[in-house]
Amino acid sequence: GLLTRLQTSAPTIRTLSSSNSFSQNIPSSLWKLGRLNHVAIAVPDLEKAQSLYKDVLGAQVSETVALPEHGVYTVFVELGNTKLELLHPLGERSPIASFLQKNKTGGMHHICIEVDDIKAAMTELKKKKIRILSEEPKIGAHGKPVIFLHPKDCHGVLVELEQA
């Protein structure tokens, strides 16, 4: 009856054996990728964006911090498992100003992932033909060394790596 038809038509489910483990396909490295530190969002109106996250959504929002060496004002929104970084231009040569010229209402600018050894990551990524947008790490918003990877080498996403 029905039970026999269900048993014979059920798809076969295959499981991965330990010999086919995904981790065995990943080459050993001198550095490791860590957790998502933040997602950065360029905003044309910083006060309005702060108000959305603090007053409307109820998030804990940091004070505004100017980072002249990066040409931005930053505000961090705490989310428990990660953060949002709100970016607003500081000066005419700000990379965020040019981003906002193309994206008038703002939008996602980059993601930031922690690494345990930024120098080793740089060396290995250069060997793998991933372009790094600076010769040396710069000090980022958290007071730690950061680098940015070219979005064309990262499937259209600007990726920031931060020393954990």
Q: What is shown here, in short?
A:
The protein is α+β, with helices and mostly antiparallel strands and 164 residues long.
Got a strand count?
9
Instruction: Give me the secondary-structure category.
Output: alpha+beta
Give the CA-CA distance, first to last residue. Answer: 61 Å
CATH homology-level superfamily: 2,3-Dihydroxybiphenyl 1,2-Dioxygenase, domain 1
Structure characteristics:
164 residues, alpha+beta, 2,3-Dihydroxybiphenyl 1,2-Dioxygenase, domain 1, nine-stranded mixed beta sheet
How would you portray this structure in words?
The structure is a single chain. This protein is an alpha+beta fold and about 160 residues long. The chain has a single domain, classed as Roll (2,3-Dihydroxybiphenyl 1,2-Dioxygenase, domain 1). It is built from four helices and nine strands; from the N terminus they run H-E-H-E-E-E-E-H-E-H-E-E-E. Strands 1, 2, 3, 4, 5, 6, 7, 8 and 9 form a nine-stranded mixed sheet that branches. It is globular. It starts with a helix and ends with a strand. Residues about 1-5 and about 10-20 have low confidence and may be disordered. Keywords: Cobalt, Isomerase, Metal-binding. This is Methylmalonyl-CoA epimerase, mitochondrial.
Secondary structure blueprint with pairings:
Blueprint: H1 2-9, E1 33-42, H2 46-56, E2 60-61, E3 65-67, E4 72-78, E5 83-89, H3 95-102, E6 107-115, H4 118-127, E7 138-139, E8 145-149, E9 159-163
Parallel strand pairs: 1-5, 6-9
Antiparallel strand pairs: 1-6, 2-4, 3-4, 4-5, 7-8, 8-9
